[in-house]
Amino acid sequence: MSTPQRRERRGAGELEAAVLGALWAADGPLTPTEIQTRVGEGLAYNTIHTIITRLADKGLLRRVPMGARTGYLPAKDAAQAAADRMRDALESSRERDAILARFVTALSADDEAALRAALDARPPG
Amino acid sequence: MIFSIYVPLAVGLLLGFVAPVVARRAHAGTGMLALSVAIAGAGLGSVWALVLIIATLWDDLPGVDRGVTSSVPDVLAVAAAAWLLVAGLRALGVVLARRRMHRGLHAAVAGIDCTSDGVTVIADPRPEAFAVPACRPAPARIVVTEGMLRALGPRQRLAMYAHERAHLDGRHHRLRAVAEVAAAVNPALGPASRAMAHLCERSADERAAAHVGDRGLVAEAVAMAALASRATGSPAYHRTLGFGHLGVVQRVAALHRPARTHRRVVALVAGAAVLVVLLAAGDATLDFIHFARALTGP
Q1: Which has more confidence, A19 or B73?
Q2: Which residues of B touch A83 (CB under 8 A)?
C-alpha cells in the first residue's frame, strides 16, 4: 500500500476517533452541529456526516430523534458488556504494567502535587 | 577466561545503573533503540556466559587435565546450571504471560467494532487507554475507556490517540518483550528494562507531540489522565525500588524542556556495551576452545 494512501486512512481513523470521543464525553445526544463544534479542527459539516454514517454502519452510534433534529449517542451495550471482560483480562496478571503500556500510570501523593503544580504553571494560551 | 567469562554478567549489572541515566537525559527514540540493543546484547551474553561456566564442569571428567577452566569453581558451575534452567522457565513465563494478556484483551473486545485505526471504546468509568498489538486474526486495537474520554478535552484526546498509535507504529511491545526476557535471564537487567519502558513512553509522547504540533498539549493530556486516574482510585501505586522513579512527572517535565538531541553519545554507549560483551564472550570462548582442543588433540 503506498504511503499517501496510508496517511489518508489514518486521517479517517483519527476523525472517527475524535467524533466517538466527543459523543462518549457528552452528557446527552449531540446534533451534527454540536459534534462539529466539539471536535473542532475546522471540519466541514459534510465530513462530519460522512464520519457519522461510517460509525453508524459499524454499530458504534445510534440515532435519537430530538424534535425536528436528529441527535446521536454512542452505542453502549456492547461497550458495557466488554467493560467487565476487559477488567478481568487486566486483573488476570500482576505483570500487567510490564506487559501493557498504559497511558494512565500510578501516582504517589507527591507526584500528584508535582503534576498539579506543573499544570498551574504552564503559560496561558 | 578467568575474568572475561563473567564480563557479560557484569555488563548487565552496569547497564542497570547506566540505563536510568540514559532514560532521563537521552533523545527518546535513540535512547529507546540503543537501550534495546544493549539489553538484548547483555541478555544473550549472559546466556552464553552461563553456558561456558557450566561447560567448565567438563574438566571434572576422569582423565581430563585441568586447564584454564579450573579457574571456575565447580560449585559456581552447578549453580549456573540451576540458574540457566530457572532462567529458561522465567523467560518462557514472560512470553506466555504476554501472549495470554494480549489474547485475553482481544477476546474481551472481540464483540465491538472499532474505528479504522482500531480505536475501541469500553464503557468503564475508570480512565484507561492502551494499545494491544495485533494477534492474528485480530487487528491491532487501541482500547480507550469512557472514563478516559471524559477526563480529557478534544485536543487532549487527539494527543492521547496519537500516543497510543505511536506505540503500535513503533512496535514498542516487541522491544519491551525482548527486554523483559533478557531481565528474566539476568535480573540485574531489571532496572534497564524499566528504563527502556520509560523511554518507550517518552518516544510515544514525542511522536504524538510531532503529530499534534504541540508538546505542551501532550504534557497536559498525560497529566490530566494521571490526575483523573488518581481521582477514581486506580491503578494501585507501587513504588519501584531504587534509582529514582521514572513516571508521569518525569514525562511531563521532559515535554516542558527543550527536546533532547544527544543521539550520538547514547548510540556510542550502547555500541560500546555490545562490543564489550562480544569481546569478553569471544575471549572466554576462544580460551575454552583452546582448552578443549588441547584435550582432544593428538
Answers
A1: A19
A2: 122-124, 145
Q: Which three cell numbers stand for residue B122?
A: 469500553
- Quote the ipTM score: 0.88
Task: State mean pLDDT over A30-43.
Answer: 88
Nearest Cα to B246, choosing from B13, B30, B22, B15?
A: B22
From A6's Cα to the closest Cα of chain B, the distance in A is: 11
Q: Which A-chain residues 35-94 have CB contacts (< 8 A) with chain B?
A: 38-40, 55, 58-60, 74, 76, 78-83, 85-90, 92-93
Nearest by CB to B123, which of A80, A104, A115? Answer: A80
Residue B223 grid coordinates: 497529566
**How far is it, in rounded angstroms, from Cα B195 to Cα B203?**
12
Whether the CB-CB separation of A74 and A60 falls below 8 Å is answered with: yes
Q: Contacts by A66-70 with C-beta closer than 8 Å and gap 24+? A: A66/A29, A66/A31, A69/A31, A70/A31, A70/A32
Size of interface A-B (CB pairs under 8 A): 206
How do residues A50-89 score in pLDDT, each as one tens digit? 999 999 999 999 999 988 899 999 999 999 999 999 999 9
* Beta-carbon separation of B109 and A86 below 8 A: yes
User: From CA B181, how far away is CA B177, in angstroms rounded?
Assistant: 6
Q: Taking CB atoms and an 8 Å limit, are B180 and A58 in contact across chains?
A: no
| B24: Cβ contacts below 8 Å, ≥ 6 apart | B244, B246, B250
Single pTM value for the model: 0.90
**Cα torsion B141, B143, B149, B155: sign:** negative
Cell representation of residue B222: 498525560
Q: Give the three-class secondary structure for A102.
A: strand
Contact: B123, A105; criterion CB under 8 Å: no
Percent of chain A with pLDDT over 70: 88
Q: What is the pLDDT of residues B44-67, one digit of tens each?
A: 999 999 998 898 887 777 666 667
The DSSP line for B86-142 is: HHHHHHHHHHHHHHHHHHHHHHHHTTS---TT-EEEE--SS--EEEE--BTTBPPEE
**What is the percent of chain B where pLDDT is above 90?**
58
Backbone phi and psi for residue B241, each to the nearest 5 degrees, phi listed first: -70, 135
pLDDT higher for B297 or A22?
A22
Helix intervals (H) in chain B: 7-25, 28-55, 74-109, 146-151, 154-169, 172-185, 190-212, 215-231, 248-256, 264-296
